[in-house]
Design goal:
By secondary structure, the protein is an alpha+beta fold. The chain has helices at 15-28, 43-53, 86-99, 123-126, 129-142, 262-267; strands at residues 35-36, 39-40, 59-62, 77-80, 102-105, 112-118, 153-158, 162-166, 181-188, 202-204, 210-212, 219-223, 225-226, 229-233, 239-241, 249-258.
Length: 271
Amino acid sequence: GRRHPWAKPLFQNGEMDSFFKKRRLLASNSLGDNTRDGISVSNGEGDEISAAWKKYDPVFASFPDPERKGGEDDPYVVILHNLVSNQEADKLASMGSNIGWKLVESSNSEIELFQTATCRHSTFCDSDETYENIMSRISSLVNVSKTYIEPMELLRFQEGDYSSPHHIFELNELWTPAGPRVLSLFVFLSDANTEGTGGGSIGFPNLDWLYVKPRKGMAVLWPNVHGENLYDVDMRMDVEHFPVEKDEQMIGGYFHFRLFDWADADSRDCA
């Protein structure tokens, strides 16, 4: 299928970096000082961004840092605390059983082994008020319609499950009307015992082995592509999920932002 010639992209080339810079500025400064690193935010825009972001206590675990040797081109990785409540997390996690967990096992057994359940074409998800509210909340982080977000994909890791480093970007996305996954958001829907091995954590091995320990309701946001060319995959953004400890499990949900309207493409069987 083809994309409408007037279809609006989530970002233009060059806009994604400014998107993150503005939010980092407002996360670290009062609205009385809205200029840093060449980025200026007007009061109205600052209020809008602040309302959608600051209540989640964003922490920029990775960002371009010219003051750190070799860090001037580092990509963004943002941790958002309490994006969903414990009750909402439990509700989303329970959807896996209602949808039906499916085993994901790579042809290369060293790559991945875990269970997944997707909300794509699931009437159970589409009719659930909690799920729809969270989709709207997540879309507000980027100030875009929730139709740009793929339906939630649930992951469950139990003892013995694993996922080696891999990239969220898929090459076939380049030829679809919805375009590539420019941003990914992973939400922890359960806690896990992280002592010793950091079990259940999500890691970015190419970012100096950065990893984020699981905490129910917390989310991690990152770009999959280069900001100056949104069709160019950023190979540094491999992710992995650490094995959980004995008798533990970790459940989480992926939400991927496409460059163009995903729901429109899916309605035409072009997603």
